[in-house]
Input
Amino acid sequence: MDLCHVPAVREKGWYLALMAPNVKGPNYAWLDPSRLYCHPQGLQDCMADLLQPFQGDPIDMVAGIDAMGFILGAAAAAALQKGFLAIRKAGHLCVQTLAQPYTDYSGREKVMEVRTDAILPGLRILLVDQWVETGGTMRAAIQLVERLGGVVAAPHPCPAGVAAICIEDSEGGRWIRERYKCSHCVPPSLQPRFDRHQ
Output
């Protein structure tokens, strides 16, 4: 699909076909959504699908996870007219931070951090990342927000939550889905293929 083509019928997830498969090996994500971000209508429809479940929810701030979550997170913040908070890999912030170790999708041990002056107790946060594969990265971001007193989700009413292009049906993905309000772009008919990385 070229970067100008828009299908006559735009069903949820049509833009997923814009993504490119991994050609660099196991240390990289299996699918690269950055080509989707280059397609104007694809990006708009992706954002609309991601934010639809949160319409009317009381969200105070959007937080995006380093690094590709910055793209979707900033776009979500702009669409919702909310502020944006970057949750960074350790070593990039020159201010007071809170750190959280985690294991990423490739099994590498890492540390994530967030500035301590941006989240006040009770602040309702929508966490956004490009992809939730094993759930380790998103879970670390949730822990950072909650350790500072922010609210990612509560059963009723749900003040915010988690959004990603895909939330895989992994142990970590299920843990997140069971505890937080989640939004993603993969239609149910395609979810098994995404879970198998096909």
Q: What stands out?
A: The helical segments are 34-37, 40-51, 69-80, 136-147, 171-179, 191-195. The two ends are 18 Å apart (CA to CA).
